[in-house]
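Below sits my pick:
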Amino acid sequence: MSFRELRNFCELMRGLGYHRNISMENFREPNFELVADILWWFATRYDPQADISDDIEDEKDRVIFIRSVCQLFATKARIQLNPKKLYEAQGFAVKEMLKIAQMMTKAMQSSDVIDDDDNVQMMDFNTSSKL
């Protein structure tokens, strides 16, 4: 984990509209609750019908949660995540979550470009019809 990756992750999450502020100090020590909250937010935003339990009280439940999130993104988004790094919930988990954040940011930017192109085409169409 580098400082740049951590900073980029914080900025991408802010741009995606994550409901909680993430500082760079959050990943100095293991913080599984934050990592689980971010992964659950990613999963529900990517696939709202995904059947992922947010129960992380027990070690067994945490393993099931990490496994189901990794399986979701491997099958639907073709993003390979390292579950061991995610379970550690330190700085190396940021590298794995950065993959998902970059994919969602690119998708959001491409949908904005398409919307802008549609508006331009509509404006051109309206202008030609007025002539």
Observations:
- The radius of gyration is 18 Å.
- Residues 91-130 form the longest helix (40 residues).
- DSSP finds five helices and no strands in the chain.
